[in-house]
Amino acid sequence: MSRATDRAARRAALSGSGPTSDAAPTARFPGAKSAFGLLGEVLLVGILVGLVSLPVVTLPAALAAGVRHLRRFLRAEHSGLERFWRDVRAALLGGIGIGVASLVVTAVLLLDIDLASTGVLPGGPLVGLVGWLGLAALVLVLFSAAGHWSPESGWLGAVRAVPGALRADPAGAAYLLATAAFAGIVTWQLFPLLIPALGCVALAIVAVPERPRRAHGAAQ
Length: 220
Hints:
Elements: H1 3-15, H2 35-52, H3 59-74, H4 81-118, H5 124-148, H6 154-168, H7 170-189, H8 194-207, H9 212-219
C-alpha cells in the first residue's frame, strides 16, 4: 500500500467511515474527534434534557434519553432528534415513577438537613451527615440508572444494574458525584448555566464508565 493510500485509510478510520485497511483500526469514539462538534452536541443535549425536565419528575427519563443520544453521537451512529424523542416516550413509562419517588426522598432529606442545621433535632450533625449521604446515594442511583436504561431492559433492569456497576467502579462513582456537585454549584451561581450543566452530566454518565483506566483494568 502506498503512503498516500495509507494516510487516506487512517483518515477514514478516524472519521468513523473506515477502516479501509487492516492497518487502520476504527476510532473508538469517532464522534468526539471534533471538539467544537462535541461541545455543540453537549449544549444541545443540555437544552433537550432541560426542556423534558420542566415537570421535574421527568428528569430521569430526560437524562436517559440524553445519555443515549450522546452515546450514539460519540459512536458516529445516526443521532437524529427523532430517536431522542422516541427514547423520551419510552423512558417516561416507569421513569415518572422514579422521578416522583426521587422527588419525595429529596424533599425528606433536605428537610432533615435543614432541621439538623437549626439545632432542633438531637444529634443534629449526625442527622445532617446522614441527609447529605442520602442525597449522594440518590444522585448515584439516578445517574447510574439513566446510563443503564434502554427500551429493552426498562427501568427495572436499569435499577437492578446499579449496585453491581457502583461496586465494580467506586472511582467512577466519585467522578459522578463530582459532576453532580459541579452542576449544582454552577447552577446555584447562575441559573442559566443549568443548561450546559445538564449536558455535562449526560456526557459524564456516558464517559466515566468508558474512561481508559477502567477499560484497561477490565481487559486485564
